[in-house]
């Protein structure tokens, strides 16, 4: 796997990610890649690099989310919870289930049914 480049201004990037996540409605989800596509290419990063690493950088921002960010609403492109540690994954699943999001027997969320379209009510 190629070395992961460093964002020139991670604080600014994370703040943009968190602002988008705050807009995801209760009972909806978005993928890391979906959020990356909503963001402009960060200053100092070329477009190809952002295409390759944007979703990973979004994942890093989610992992560093402050308390007011509904981080549980971000999953991978398969509709699965990305395993960081078992406690966080179980907590995320319970939080989503409390919002009415269901999981199939393989632990996946129906992306067509629950995916946020990026529009604000």
What topology does this entry show?
Layout: H1 10-21, E1 30-31, H2 32-38, H3 47-63, E2 74-75, H4 86-98, H5 111-114
Parallel strand pairs: 1-2
Helix pairs in contact: 1-3, 2-3
Give a verbal description of the structure.
The protein is mainly α. It has five helices and two strands; from the N terminus they run αβααβαα. The protein has helices at 10-21, 32-38, 47-63, 86-98, 111-114; strands at residues 30-31, 74-75. It has a two-stranded parallel ribbon. The mean pLDDT is 93.
Summarize the structure.
Helix content is 44%, strand content 3%.
Largest sheet properties: 2 strands, parallel
Highest CATH level, the class = Mainly Alpha
Walk across the major sheet and give the strand order: 1-2
Quickly count the domains.
Answer: 1
The low-confidence runs, each spanning 5 or more residues with pLDDT under 50, are none
Q: Could you tell me the number of beta strands?
A: 2
Q: What helical percentage do the residues reach?
A: 40-55%
Nearest-angstrom radius of gyration?
14 Å
| CATH topology assignment | Arc Repressor Mutant, subunit A
């Amino acid at each position: 796997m190629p070395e992961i480049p460093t964002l020139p201004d991670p604080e600014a990037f994370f703040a943009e990610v968190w602002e988008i996540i705050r807009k995801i409605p209760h009972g909806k989800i978005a993928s890391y890649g979906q959020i990356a596509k909503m963001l402009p290419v960060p200053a100092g990063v070329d477009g190809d690099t952002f295409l390759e690493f944007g979703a990973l950088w979004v994942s890093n921002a989610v992992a560093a989310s402050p308390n007011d960010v509904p981080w549980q609403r971000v999953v991978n492109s398969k509709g699965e919870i990305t395993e960081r540690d078992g406690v966080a994954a179980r907590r995320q699943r319970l939080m989503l289930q409390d919002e009415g999001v269901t999981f199939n027997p393989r632990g996946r969320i129906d992306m067509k049914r629950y995916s946020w379209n990026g529009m604000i009510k």
